[in-house]
Amino acid sequence: MQFTPSILLATALILVGCPGPADTPPPLEEVRTALQSDFATADSNNDGALSLSEALAAVSGMTAAQFGDLDSDNDGLLLPSELGGNTGGEGEGEGEGEGEGEGETGAPVHYSYAVLDTFPHDTNAFTQGLVIEQGTLFEGTGLYGSSSLRRVNQATGAVQQQANLSAAYFGEGIVVWEDTIIQLTWRAGKAFLYNKDTFEPTGEFTYSGEGWGITHDGSALIMSNGTSRIRFRNPETFEVTREILVLDEGQVVPQLNELEYINGEIWANVWQTDLIARIDPADGRVTGWVDCSGLLTASQASRADVLNGIAYNPESGQILITGKYWPAIFHIEAVPIP
């Protein structure tokens, strides 16, 4: 996802309207409690967040204005953290259940970084996904009318091959699975498949909810949708096989975006921040945080957008980081902060 849709909530407030004099809405805390307890049921599309329509359907008498009061980040969605609890669906419990607990092995390790090398990057690329496969760098870009799949010369930044998406689609994360590149789209519910060598279309998958980041662990595709949940999918059918709720010492971590699987961990960029969460794929526990702030100079940052792009070369151990409209791709090493 790329845009904060506060205008959608404002529009919804107008369309839903306010209660009449005889319609007294329930107290806000009663609404909050009801949404906490019935979160999994209210979350009809199982995307880890409640839309205005889902919340209104779940709580009788609730108003759109109350939804706005609870929506602290004004993004048109209610996350469990905004309701004050670790609510969720099956297997999530309230932070004390099996599998998705509160980090029994201790607090996450905090990291800074060392820049080992720098490579040119196309400043017109609204980067959504970055992948290295057998030494080749692939990039997926977004925006309606500008989304593409690219093969990029890592050393020079030159685009060597490109396939453009229809203007009807907003491209998102990419992953290479065997001889196929899979590219997500933001809100269309479609993943497009391409031949890795020719970029010829070979098929598509459909999914519910939004598409953000995608990677794989060698046996399953791993996908984010902008919430605190990460889903594992069958690479042949794209069906969800399991999911994890990502928790930082018991607190949900929302807006998980670009993903990369690195040495048994899921690295996830948190949208609109310079932070990358290192996540245990077994239980969703955040084991570390990599703070990538300061990669760009003030002048560069003024012409760029947010951090978004993580690629890992298992053959060399190289980790690459970039962002939307960034002028460079950085080869970094995570350095623990004392």
Write the layout of secondary structure elements.
Blueprint (H helix, E strand, L loop, with lengths): L5 H11 L11 H10 L1 H4 L9 H7 L5 H7 L38 E12 L6 E7 L2 E6 L6 E5 L6 E6 L6 E7 L2 E6 L4 E6 L5 E6 L7 E3 L4 E4 L4 E5 L6 E6 L1 E2 L2 E2 L3 E7 L2 E6 L4 E5 L6 E6 L6 H5 L4 E7 L4 E6 L4 E9 L2
Your description of this structure?
With 338 residues, the chain is mainly beta. 13% of the residues lie in helices and 38% in strands. It is built from six helices and 22 strands. It has helices spanning 6-16, 28-37, 39-42, 52-58, 64-70, 298-302; strands at 109-120, 127-133, 136-141, 148-152, 159-164, 171-177, 180-185, 190-195, 201-206, 214-216, 221-224, 229-233, 240-245, 247-248, 251-252, 256-262, 265-270, 275-279, 286-291, 307-313, 318-323, 328-336. The chain has an eight-stranded mixed β-sheet with strand order 16-17-18-19-1-22-21-20, with no helix packed on it. Strands 2-3-4-5 form a four-stranded antiparallel β-sheet, with no helix packed on it. Strand 21 and strand 22 form a beta hairpin. The protein is globular and about 65 Å long. The model is unreliable at 3-22 and 85-104 (pLDDT under 50).
- How much strand? 35-45%
Helix content: 10-25%
Average pLDDT taken over every residue: 86
Number of separate helices: 6
Largest sheet, in brief, is: 8 strands, mixed
> Over all CA atoms, what is the radius of gyration?
20 Å
Task: Please trace the helix and strand order, writing H or E for each element.
Answer: HHHHHEEEEEEEEEEEEEEEEEEEHEEE
Largest sheet: spatial strand order: 16-17-18-19-1-22-21-20
Total number of β-strand segments?
22
Structural class estimated from helices and strands: mainly beta
Shape: globular
Distance between the termini: 34 Å
**Unreliable sequence segments:** 3-22, 85-104
